[in-house]
Structure to design on (413 residues):
């Protein structure tokens, strides 16, 4: 058990022989991040409930979940899956795991009592944290939240408080509890202002990026991911390869072409890892190099990938539609006019398909062009940005003047 002083300043001094300092204790807690809870199981739950999953995929997901449950005696999580995912109940397994949980919790409670009677404040805190981590690991959400709150009350170090907040964010992600996630992201911001270290600041950026992705704030997620791509350490959330894939996919929908080239296509950290993901690499290269036929082929592969990704699946249709628009816009920006036949050939589709696609996006005011169906030509209408800015300024100025007039009627200056 760590023997730390009750204050962070004192804890930074040397401990007794064989005892851990604050820094050593915090390193041990970072290692625990990999354990509580196991977020890779979220993907298995998604595959189990996804409408398009084959029986083989569902069976594989079920087996993976049961294997993880048995390995850690995750009784509360097992009950949750029975109630929400149709996992069959095994009375013998449930009884065995419940007994193991009761025995371990009894041991942890005894450790808390012993620390309270015989040891100092830091040991009491460590004993409470051990109980909270165990409850989080087995999937007992409500009990874990309560235990973490009790541990926070006994915690002085800003870094250790942040680690508890990170655990609560992960617990919220595990159970898709957005309120728990947002509440603790806000709490993490407050703690960072009070003195969070460099490593935890980077970690928080990744956590926030993952949450931003889940609520379709792709531009915000792109910014945070690109900031941390060279310093990524949040392996408790995902593997680095998946992080790079997410960064590339979101950058392509969020960044202008020049920034995409500078930060992603020419980004050494991204390119170093991207060779492990040939589909995503081919997709990026085809888009950036204006190989539109290849881009559309890879886009079909990306569509299939997104279908099976628990984080991006809810946004799949939006993402694919926006990337098609990006592709059309990129080609049209190079020409004043282009034939439908030539454009269809560039994208490797039929003239009828491209005509229907462009008509739909033009009607929705997503493409600045018009189609001459008789001549079979697409003419671009490049927006006059200066005139648009002028009109926008006039409009906002009128609104401001109206607000000032209303205010002057209420306030006697």
């Amino acid at each position: 058990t760590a023997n730390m002083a009750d204050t962070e300043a004192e804890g930074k001094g040397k401990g007794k022989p064989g005892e851990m300092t604050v820094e050593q204790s915090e390193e041990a807690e970072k290692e625990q991040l990999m354990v509580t809870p196991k977020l890779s199981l979220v993907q298995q739950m998604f595959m189990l409930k996804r409408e398009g999953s084959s029986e083989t995929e569902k069976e594989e997901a079920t087996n993976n979940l049961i294997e993880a449950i048995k390995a850690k005696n995750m009784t509360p999580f097992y009950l949750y899956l029975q109630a929400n995912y149709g996992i069959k109940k095994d009375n013998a397994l449930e009884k065995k795991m419940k007994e193991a949980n009761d025995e371990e919790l009894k041991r942890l409670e005894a450790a808390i009592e012993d620390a309270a009677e015989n040891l100092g404040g830091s040991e009491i805190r460590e004993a409470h944290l051990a109980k909270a981590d165990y409850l989080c690991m087995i999937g007992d959400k409500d009990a874990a939240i309560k235990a973490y709150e009790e541990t926070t009350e006994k915690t002085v170090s800003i870094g250790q408080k942040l680690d508890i907040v990170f655990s609560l964010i992960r617990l919220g992600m595990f159970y898709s509890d957005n309120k728990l996630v947002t509440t603790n992201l806000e709490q993490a911001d407050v703690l960072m202002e009070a003195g969070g270290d460099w490593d935890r600041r980077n970690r928080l950026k990744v956590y926030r990026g993952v949450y931003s992705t889940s609520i379709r704030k792709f531009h915000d997620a792109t910014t945070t991911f690109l900031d941390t791509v060279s310093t990524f350490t949040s392996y408790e959330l995902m593997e680095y390869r998946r992080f790079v894939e997410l960064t590339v996919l979101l950058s392509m929908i969020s960044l202008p072409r020049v920034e995409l080239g500078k930060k992603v296509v020419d980004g050494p950290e991204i390119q170093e890892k991207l060779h492990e993901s040939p589909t995503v690499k081919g997709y990026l290269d085809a888009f950036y190099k204006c190989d539109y036929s290849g881009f559309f082929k890879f886009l079909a592969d990306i569509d299939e990938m997104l279908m099976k990704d628990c984080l991006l699946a809810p946004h799949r249709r939006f993402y694919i539609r926006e990337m098609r628009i990006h592709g059309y816009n990129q080609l049209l920006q190079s020409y004043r006019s282009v034939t439908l036949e030539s454009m269809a050939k560039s994208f490797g589709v039929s003239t009828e398909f491209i005509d229907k696609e462009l008509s739909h996006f033009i009607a929705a005011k997503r493409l600045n062009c018009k189609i001459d169906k008789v001549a079979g030509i697409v003419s671009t209408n490049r927006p006059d940005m200066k005139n648009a800015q002028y009109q926008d300024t006039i409009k906002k100025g009128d609104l401001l003047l109206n607000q000032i007039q209303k205010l002057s009627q209420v306030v006697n200056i």
